[in-house]
Write a structure and sequence with these properties.
About 45% of the residues lie in helices and about 15% in strands. It has about 250 residues and is of the alpha/beta class. It has a single domain, classed as NAD(P)-binding Rossmann-like Domain (Rossmann fold, 3-Layer(aba) Sandwich), CATH 3.40.50.720. Strands 3-2-1-4-5-6-7 form a seven-stranded parallel beta sheet, sandwiched between helices. The longest helix is centred in the middle third of the chain and has 28 residues. The protein is globular, with a radius of gyration of 17 Å. The chain starts with 10 loop residues before the first strand and ends in an 8-residue tail after the last strand. The protein binds NADP nicotinamide-adenine-dinucleotide phosphate (NAP). NADP nicotinamide-adenine-dinucleotide phosphate binds next to helix 1.
Length: about 250
């Protein structure tokens, strides 16, 4: 049974792999045997993750990429193909947000959120899908959030962008199933990373948030890894277009 989750020899791209959930996912994929291309803008963070993977005996490649730039996305896929021969797995994890009310959110802020979270996910998935389609298939996992299906104050454009990612997941899954490409999403609940630190770093706020999570704690980045590895594995071969929430019961309690 254990070998059915094995990803030995698979070539994976993980965006936002330098820290937080993306770092945990890159290490998890490498631990399952995948060769991992690490993408984000901060080279030093990516190099640190690459060193961890190599120390564990894994193969990896650092590719500095700004996902708001379509030429850099094309070059990322090209670099993966040159290094590892193909792209079998894409994890669209990179995202950004601003903690700001919709009345105060500037137009360029809205654009940055949608360019990174939605357009970047589309462009990278499309570029990789063209490679995957020629090789018999692949697996794409988009990192969503419980906020994709739940409103809230302070990050409205982010919620809207992730709702778009959820729908993009369903449409890509539908269009690309004939090519053997499965597309799913994993939606974390509030997770302790630099991204969400302004929220959970206040102990009183953390306590209030935790009180509404049935499992009684926030997620750690490592909590998200199992769901992603499952969806990348052959054990999920008939699953596509789905969103799997890893939230300690948050949505069940909404
Ligand atoms: N933390 C949470 O509570 C939480 C909850 C639900 C869902 N999520 C989702 O989980 C994913 C990871 O979040 P996280 O909390 O781990 O965030 P994080 O710690 O802020 O990491 C975000 C990553 O995205 C990269 N990134 C941002 N903009 C980019 C761009 N234009 N081009 C390339 N890379 C870019 C960042 O690297 P550079 O800045 O170096 O480019 C960084 O590596 C996101 O999709 C987020 O929406 C997080």
């Amino acid at each position: 049974m254990a070998d059915k989750f094995d990803l030995t020899g698979k070539a994976a791209i993980v965006t936002g792999a330098g820290r937080g959930i993306g770092r945990a996912l890159a290490l998890g994929l490498a631990g399952a045997g995948a060769k991992v291309v690490l993408a984000a803008r901060s080279q030093a963070e990516l190099e640190a993750v690459a060193a961890e993977i190599r120390d564990g005996g894994g193969e990896t490649l650092v590719r500095v990429t700004d996902l708001t730039q379509s030429d850099q996305i094309e070059a990322l896929v090209q670099a993966a193909v040159e290094a590892f021969g193909t792209v079998d797995i894409v994890i669209n994890n990179a995202a950004r947000s601003f903690l700001r009310s919709l009345m105060d959110l500037r137009e360029d802020g809205f654009d940055k959120i949608f360019d990174t979270n939605v357009k970047g996910t589309f462009l990278l998935s499309r570029a990789a899908a063209k490679v995957m389609a020629g090789k018999g298939g692949g697996r794409i996992v988009n990192i969503s959030t419980v906020g994709a299906v739940r409103g809230g104050a302070g990050m409205g454009a982010y919620h809207a962008s992730k709702a778009a990612v959820k729908m993009l997941t369903m449409c890509m899954a539908t269009e690309w199933a004939p090519f053997g490409i499965r597309v799913n999403a994993v939606g974390p609940g509030l997770t302790k990373t630099p991204f969400s630190e302004p929220i959970w770093s206040n102990p009183e706020v953390e306590k209030a948030l935790t009180s509404r999570i049935p499992m009684g704690r926030l997620a750690e980045p490592e909590d998200i890894v199992g769901a992603v590895l499952f969806l990348c594995s052959s054990q999920a071969d008939f699953i596509t277009g789905q969103s799997l929430y890893v939230d300690g019961g948050t949505l069940a309690n909404t």
